[in-house]
Amino acid sequence: MSDSVTITIDGRNIEARPGQTILEAADAAGIYIPRLCSHPDLKPIGSCRVCTVVVDGRPQAACVKPVMDGMVVQNSTPELLQHRRNIVDMMFVEGNHFCMFCEKSGNCELQAMAYRFGITAPQYPFQFPEKEVDASHPDILLDHNRCIMCARCVRASQELDGKNVFQSIGRGFARKIGVNGERALGDTDMAATDKAADICPVGCIVRKRVGFEKPIGQRLYDTRPIGSDIEEVRA
Amino acid sequence: MGTRKIVIEPVTRVEGHGKVTILLDEAGQVSQARLHIVEFRGFERFIQGRPYWEIPVLVQRLCGICPVSHHLAAAKAMDGIVGVDRLTPTAEKMRRLMHYGQMFQSHALHFFHLVSPDLLFGFDADPLERNVIGVARKYPELAVQGVMMRKYGQEIIKATAGKKIHGTGAIPGGINKNLSIAERDGFLKEIDQMLAWCRTSLTIARDYTLEHLDELADFGSFDSNHVSLVRADGAMDLYHGNLRAIDKDGNRIFDQVDYQGYFKYIAEEVKPWSYMKFPFISSLGPETGWYRVGPLARINACDFIDTPEAEVARKDFLSVTDGQPNNITMAYHWARMVELLHAGEKIRELLHDPDLQGGDLVLKGERRGESVGLIEAPRGTLFHHYKVDENDQVTMANLIVSTTNNNTPMNRAVEGVARKYLSGAEITEGLLNRVEVAIRAYDPCLSCATHAMGRMPLVVELHDAAGRTLDRRVRD
Ligand code: FES
Ligand code: NI
Known about the structure:
The complex is a heterodimer of chains A (235) and B (476).
Chain A: E1 5-9, E2 12-16, H1 22-28, E3 52-55, E4 58-61, E5 72-74, H2 78-94, H3 109-117, E6 133-134, E7 140-143, H4 152-160, E8 166-169, E9 176-179, E10 205-207, H5 228-234
Parallel strand pairs in A: 1-5
Antiparallel strand pairs in A: 1-2, 3-4, 3-5, 6-7, 7-10, 8-9
Chain B: E1 4-8, E2 17-24, E3 30-38, H1 43-47, H2 55-58, H3 67-81, H4 89-121, H5 132-138, H6 140-161, E4 170-171, E5 174-175, H7 181-211, H8 213-217, E6 225-230, E7 242-246, E8 252-257, E9 266-269, E10 278-281, H9 285-288, E11 291-292, H10 295-301, H11 308-319, H12 332-351, E12 370-377, E13 380-388, E14 394-400, H13 402-405, H14 407-421, H15 429-441, H16 447-453, E15 458-463, E16 469-475
Parallel strand pairs in B: 6-11
Antiparallel strand pairs in B: 1-2, 1-15, 2-3, 4-5, 6-7, 7-8, 9-10, 12-13, 13-14, 15-16
The complex binds FE2/S2 (inorganic) cluster (FES) and nickel (II) ion.
Residues 63, 65-66, 445, 448 of chain B line the site of nickel (II) ion.
């Protein structure tokens, strides 16, 4: 087996290693494919679909699809951009995402994605669902209002922490992150040192008592859009 | 036959909503005036369950005009929750700078955008001219001053809170940034100009008041108690202090009260016709215990002002009433301009203080379950009171906003004006104007929307006892 394959993304030839996903290959080449559920330390599950690209004419999740020699990938067609916008839009209205007083603001991947996509106000009606706040853990706050069901916490707890603190439970609109079968987070073996405590892309799982300590202007996405670190590789 | 009602209702507003009802007796005389302001009463419930460190940022949504006041009052309360009674010098001075910046921009905005048209053109001038556009046309240099002063204050807020509106600077136990040398130097470059403009504004308000003293003395005026925070030595202190209450003659009702126990001194009465509560001094009872807050009350209550020019202005202000408390409603404008100058002087003092470049920003202490934060907001004393459980969630919030403290006084002011200017069953243009002017003296939060609009949209309705509309007048 050759140790290198060639694919094209938006007409550009990219060298990739066999076994890499399209997303990984694009990252290495300095091409940013938007993503939310994917995280470099976790196995991809392809659930949020923000990373959707068109591979040889068919929509695929770039975070799970392995590269194959000669693949033709489209990443930035107007249709794909619109599709991603719609997904992010829906995430905003399906939860209670009040960026104006959320401590994750400026460090939030969902918010940063909306900025990158130029979304100022969602096009769909807000659902304002009833969600709970689980503050039972001494060091970690779980605010379901802000969950986007990316399941990063589920995977981080299993894959990185060797625990099973979080599960994805329920179906459809009632789907949510559960903790050890409906008990409160404070009853689990979650520890402040767990990787799962820092993996949330939004403000759903946050460390207690440190919110807003970073001033506006020094937060992750205050000065550079999400994905620009990847794009700088190319520059 | 019973009584008749006149309703004056501001119509188009985004947040904050008010209406004035004037009750007539059978003889057609004014018996009472009621100002209804619909507040976000749901807010105290909405806060419940939220983590305490979020509150200083969250409560800013209460108001689009004075978010910094809510931010700081909540942060002061949360200092108590995290067990910090004394902030680091850098944190306290950064917060003070933020607060004086807010005071500066709020007072300047109110005076130039809302009040100056009334003063420059007269209460009876055509509303089409009596507005900020009219001022800009006739007194362009004044309009520019207003804009530049507001901007200066806003830039200070941005430098201390991170954003001009809804920033994050104050956190429980401290502040999240200091002031860079570059930021400081930028402000220092303009401060002398700002102070010069403060003096001009003060002169306008002063000269106007003295020239019209006879007319203004009984324009919606009445004797009242006054409540304000004062420093331990009796100085005016807009950021922190102890509670003092005085009566109309300046006698102390209570003094140097630690505001953590404010509820032992201040009670709130509920009336069936209003969502807004009616605070009063407990020892005096609701009939006579109501009081005024804000610029007039602060100047009346303090013993002195600790910045030289504002102190001279304070003495000048009080000389009108021979050193006794001033109870003239329209004197609020003059008092407000004394405070504008004081805020300007304080900003200058702080900018020269190297503590603003310090690095000790946050302290932590032993957690408490309950705490109160008070601040002298532009419109008056603002109370924030919270209980927080062992999971860090807020279980109780009680807020008494500045405008609520001035509830009874505003009703009195409207009543006084109506008594004097209402004739018969007709709502005249003159009455409408004067009701507007009297309410505006208190700069109520009702003006959240009118700040944006530049004037106060009103509907006036006259009802008979059966609820039929006899007369109706609209200005939008
Ligand atoms: S990032 Fe690929 S599906 Fe979520
Ligand atoms: Ni307000």
